[in-house]
Amino acid sequence: MTALKLLRPDLTYLAPRDLYRGPVKAEPLRDLFAEDDGFIAAQRLPKIQIHLLKKDGPRPKPTVDGILDNAYLEQGVTLELREYTQGSRLKAATTAYVARDEKDLYIFFSCREPNMAKRQTERAKKRDDHVWATDCVEIFIDRTGDAVKLVHMGVSSIGVRYDARKDIGKDWNPEYEVATMLDTESWSAELKIPFASLGGAPEPGETWRMNFCRERHAGAYELGAWSVTLGHFHQPDRFGYVQFN
Questions:
Q1: Reading across the β-sheet that carries 104-112, which strands appear in turn?
Q2: What is the pLDDT of residues 43-62, one digit of tens each?
Q3: Assigned CATH for 37-244
Q4: How many CB atoms sit inside 10 A of residue 142's CB?
Q5: Which of 95, 128, 160, 190 is deepest in the core (most CB within 10 A)?
Q6: pLDDT at residue 124 above 90?
Q7: Spans of all domains in the chain
Q8: Which one is predicted more confidently, 128 or 60?
């Protein structure tokens, strides 16, 4: 302002009034290089507890048909998947629901998809094809926490399944139920996995390492995970903690 008065006194009327009436009150500049809060939160491994479905509860056990049952909402846990490297919200929201009884583990995925007609379904047609090359959901289970018998399961949007165990490979073919359902702007996948195929029912308080993921190919390629892996999905040290009570 001083320079303006000296050089062009005829233009002082153009200067903001605060500059010559008193000190300017400026807001502190935001640190553009500060770490994003969402990314910081994503680095923390999630922990959940799953309780037994009540035998005398108001709702029956889930029926494996690709339709979300109230048992998941009232007695299970609800998990939001995030972008797998940064923890940001997915463009196509994905939610996993998990419940259990004495014999089985129930998992339901709700996958929003505004481009249903563009889903990739051609690259996996039969069991143990690479379903991750299509629109699919994936489950990782590391019961012992050492990844020796790490279980990898996947279901495509049309119900093609993949199942393998690290020490056996794709020859691991347990019996379990799968159902998928397509809607106008979403699709779902539901699984009922007997604990017997996973080494038996967990003891009360037993904790497994697990992750729930989605591969999206329709419209835009997008990967989501419950426990952000900061890289590819096969990161057992980045799996979340699931305690059975």
A1: 77-80, 94-100, 104-112, 186-194, 177-182
A2: 899 999 999 998 776 678 99
A3: 2.60.40.1190
A4: 20
A5: 190
A6: yes
A7: 37-244
A8: 128
